Amino acid sequence: MQLQLGETSTVVVSSPELAREFLQTHDLNFATKPFLPSAATLLYNGRDIAFGPYGDYWRQMRKICVVELLSPKRVRSFGPIRAQEVNELVRSISMVAAGGGHEEAINLSKSLFSITYRITCRTAFGEKAQNQEEAFLPVLQEIMKALGGLSLWDLFPSSNLVRLVSGTERKLKKLHLEADVILEQVIGDHVARRRTERVDGGGVDDHDKDLVDVLLNLSSKNHGLGFSITHLEIKAVILDMILGGSDTSAVTVEWTMSELMKHPRVMEKVQKEVKEMFDGKRMVDEADLDELHYLDMVIKESLRLHLTTKLSWGK
Ligand code: HEM
User: Fold this and answer.
1) C-beta of 244 in contact with ligand 1 (< 6 A)
2) Does the keyword Membrane apply (predicted)?
3) Which of 13, 15, 224, 310 is 20 to 30 A from 82, alpha carbon to alpha carbon?
C-alpha cells in the first residue's frame, strides 16, 4: 500500500514475502531512511546513524557501535550500573508493597522510563556527570516527542513557507542547542579529566570507562576511516545511543508486563521459571538470564506483537 504523506511517498509492506523483498533482496535500495528535517536539525545533520543516510560513513560508524560500544565485553562491563539501578527500582517497589496495608498504585511505566534513561545516560557519560544527567533528561524527553510526533515540516521538507510558518525549525534549533551545550560540557569534562590523569588514549585500558571515553580514545587514533571522529560525531552517536536504547527498552518491558497481566497462565509459568532458577537468591543475576528460556520467548512474542515505541514518557 502506498501512502502519499505530503511530499513523502511511504510504502507499507505487510506480508512476509514482500518484507523479505524490501529488507533482504533489495535492502541496499531501501537502506537510507527518508530525509526528515526535524531529525536532521536535532541529530547533527545526518552525522548520527539512526537517521543518517546510508553510505560509507554510516557503515563505518555503525561498525564502531557494534564493535566498540556494544560489544558483549563492553555491555558486560556496564553490568554494575544496570544492577544498581534495578536494585533501586525493586527496593522502591518492595517498600510500597510493604506499605502497611494501604493500597498504593505504582506507576511502573514512569519508573521504567526513568530507569532506562538513567542507565543509558550513566553508561554514556560515566559516574561523574550527575548534574548534566539531571539537566539532560527533560531535554531528551522533548527531543523524543519531537522525533516521534507528526510534523508538517517533515511532510513538506522542501517548503520554505511551512518551515517558516510552522515555527518548528526555531523550536527544534533551540532544543538542539540545549542538548548540544550539555553534551559539549560532558565531553569537555572528560577531556579535562583525561588530561589530568595523563590518559593519552593509546594502549589505555578503557574497559571500565564510559562510552564518551571510548569514542574519545577512537578520536585520538588514526583508524584509516577516511573521516575524523570529532566532538560533533561523538555527540551525534552518544545521542543516538541514549535515544535508541531508552524508550525502546522501557516500552518493551512495559508491553511485556501488560501482556503478562492479561495472560495469568503465562505470568504463572514465567514466575515459576524465575523462582526455580533463582531459588534462594535474593536478586537475579544478569549472567544467569540466558537460562530463562520461557521468559525469553515471552519477550520475543511481546516484541512481535508490539514493535512500536510509545512516546509518552511513562504517563
Ligand atoms: C528492546 C529494545 C530495542 C528495540 C525494540 C530496538 C529497535 C530498533 C529498531 C526497530 C531499529 C531500526 C533498525 C532499522 O531501521 O533497520 C533500531 C536501530 C537502532 N538502535 Fe535499537 N532497539 C532497542 C534497543 C537499543 C539499544 C539498547 C540501543 C543502544 C544502546 C539501540 C541503539 C540503536 C541504534 C544506534 C540504531 C540505529 C542503527 C541502525 O539503524 O542500524 N537500540 N533499534
Assistant:
1) yes
2) no
3) 310
> Looking at the structure, do residues 54 and 201 belong to the same domain, yes or no?
yes
Ligand 1 contacts CB of residue 50 (under 6 A): yes
CA–centroid distance, 245 to ligand 1, in Å, is 7
Q: How far is the CA of 241 from the centre of ligand 1 (A)?
A: 9
Domain that holds residue 26: 1-30
| Average pLDDT per block of 10 residues along the chain, 315 residues long | 90 91 92 90 95 93 92 92 93 84 80 94 89 91 89 92 91 97 95 79 58 91 82 96 93 95 97 88 82 95 79 37
Number of neighbours of residue 256 by Cβ within 10 angstroms: 20
Which pLDDT tens digit goes with each residue over 34-53? 889 999 999 999 999 999 99
Distance CA 68, CA 211 (A): 9
Among residues 40, 69, 63, the alpha carbon closest in space to that of 245 is found at: 69
Determine the residue of 248, 251, 299, 303 to mutate for testing ligand 1's pocket, defined as the one with the most ligand atoms within 8 A of the Cβ atom: 248
Reported as a single tens digit per residue, the pLDDT across 287-307 is: 888 889 999 999 999 999 997
Question: Are both 203 and 223 inside the same structural domain?
Answer: yes
Please indicate, yes or no, whether residues 137 and 223 belong to a single structural domain of this protein.
yes
Residue among 159, 314, 204 at smallest CA distance from 250: 314
Same domain, 43 and 20: no
Q: How far is the CA of 117 from the centre of ligand 1 (A)?
A: 15
